[in-house]
């Protein structure tokens, strides 16, 4: 008699089980990237400064098309800290598709941004594909000055240009079944996979997600510019998510797809290590990262030595009045 074994619904086929080597490669990936990031964060920012020749090359990457005149939203026109120097912000970035350290600005220039399209799909009444010019014309642009807080415990203040996410939500009309949204970043392994990222299987392309009510919040923003000009490539050109009450990794760069869905989507860092990088990822000084405190941060602005200023971290990065009710 032949016995046919029917697998249980919860069982995972052996070929889909993560191999031991892949698991440890992911752990090594996290430790390498975060270790390098924190190692850099204890040095003055001047230690990362490019040479004079590199400074000229950096300046050229920041000399993008002007978006002026742009009105600044008076509700978000200033914060209690100075705006970070444009060159500092342009040379100190996380963009892991182009490398594992902060100085990815040069590598990021390989990103192709011509004829950019953003597909909006999933549980919406009006699925569509926008080109960049259409987005800029359809949704009035404004400038917002926001705090930016990285999970690595450093921060900036940045003058973004773009439009509220809720404007796009209203245009595509999510159905009653839509509970979450997923953002997918541009990915081409021949172009984007930077040095140091060959650590075994990683969940490319980079994805991030929100609950629908988070996306519809007044603070949630799509940025297409910064410092009065279109976004430089190292900042996530030509369109990225800006969520100032969350840690920076939630702000997907170079977005090509927005999908509305019923179930919580998989996201890059949460997939790699859900214990260290939660899906919600709100700035919380009282909840330390497993390897460092979040009670303080090192603020990057400018000064005679272009160095860090240590300040206290605020709950929700100081935006609790806007978003606190979402998490009662």
Q: Please, could you describe this protein's structure?
A:
It is built from eight helices and twelve strands. The chain has helices at 20-41, 52-62, 86-91, 132-138, 165-172, 212-215, 268-272, 320-323, and strands at 117-122, 128-131, 142-149, 154-164, 180-185, 207-211, 221-226, 229-230, 240-242, 255-261, 296-300, 308-312. The radius of gyration is 20 Å and the shape is globular. The strands form two sheets. Strands 3, 4, 7, 8, 9, 11 and 12 form a seven-stranded mixed sheet that branches. Strands 2-1-10-5-6 form a five-stranded mixed sheet. It has a single domain (18-327), classed as Oxidoreductase, molybdopterin-binding domain (Sulfite Oxidase, Chain A, domain 2). It is α+β, with helices and mostly antiparallel strands.
Order of helices and strands: HHHEEHEEHEEHEEEEHEEH
Separation of the first and last Cα atoms: 59 Å
Overall tally of structural domains: 1
* Radius of gyration, taken over Cα atoms and rounded to an integer in Å: 20 Å
The main sheet comes to: 7 strands, mixed
Tell me, rounded to a whole number, the average pLDDT.
87
Note the beta-strand portion.
15-25%
List the helices and strands and how they pair.
Layout: H1 20-41, H2 52-62, H3 86-91, E1 117-122, E2 128-131, H4 132-138, E3 142-149, E4 154-164, H5 165-172, E5 180-185, E6 207-211, H6 212-215, E7 221-226, E8 229-230, E9 240-242, E10 255-261, H7 268-272, E11 296-300, E12 308-312, H8 320-323
Parallel strand pairs: 1-10, 4-11
Antiparallel strand pairs: 1-2, 3-4, 4-7, 5-6, 5-10, 7-8, 7-9, 11-12
């Amino acid at each position: 008699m032949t016995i046919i074994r029917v697998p249980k619904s919860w069982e995972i086929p052996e070929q889909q089980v993560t191999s031991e080597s892949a698991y440890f490669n992911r752990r090594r990936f996290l430790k390498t990237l975060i270790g390098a990031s924190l190692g850099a964060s204890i040095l003055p920012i001047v230690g990362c400064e490019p040479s004079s020749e590199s400074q000229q090359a950096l300046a050229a990457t920041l000399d993008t098309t002007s978006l002026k005149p742009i009105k600044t939203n008076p509700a978000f026109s200033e914060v209690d800290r100075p705006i970070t120097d444009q060159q500092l912000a342009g040379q100190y970035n996380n963009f892991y598709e182009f490398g594992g350290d902060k100085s990815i600005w040069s590598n990021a220039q390989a990103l192709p941004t011509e004829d950019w399209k953003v597909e909006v799909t999933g549980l919406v009444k009006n699925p569509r594909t926008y080109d960049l010019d259409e987005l800029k014309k359809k949704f009035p642009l404004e400038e917002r000055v926001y705090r930016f807080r990285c999970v690595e415990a450093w921060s900036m203040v940045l003058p973004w240009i773009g439009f509220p996410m809720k404007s796009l939500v209203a245009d595509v009309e999510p159905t009653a079944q839509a509970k979450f949204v997923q953002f997918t970043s541009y990915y081409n392994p021949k172009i984007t996979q930077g040095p140091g990222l060959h650590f075994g299987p990683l969940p490319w392309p980079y994805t991030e997600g929100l609950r629908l009510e988070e996306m519809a919040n007044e603070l949630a923003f799509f940025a297409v510019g910064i410092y009065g000009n279109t976004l430089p490539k190292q900042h996530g050109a030509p369109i990225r998510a800006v969520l100032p009450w969350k840690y920076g990794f939630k702000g997907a760069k170079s977005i090509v797809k927005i999908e509305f869905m019923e179930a919580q989507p998989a996201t890059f860092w949460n997939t790699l290590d859900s214990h260290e990088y939660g899906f919600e990822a709100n700035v919380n000084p009282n909840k330390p990262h497993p390897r460092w405190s979040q009670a303080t941060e090192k603020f990057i602005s400018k000064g005679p030595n272009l160095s860090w200023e240590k300040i206290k971290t605020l709950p929700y990065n100081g935006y609790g009045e806007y978003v606190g009710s979402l998490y009662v």
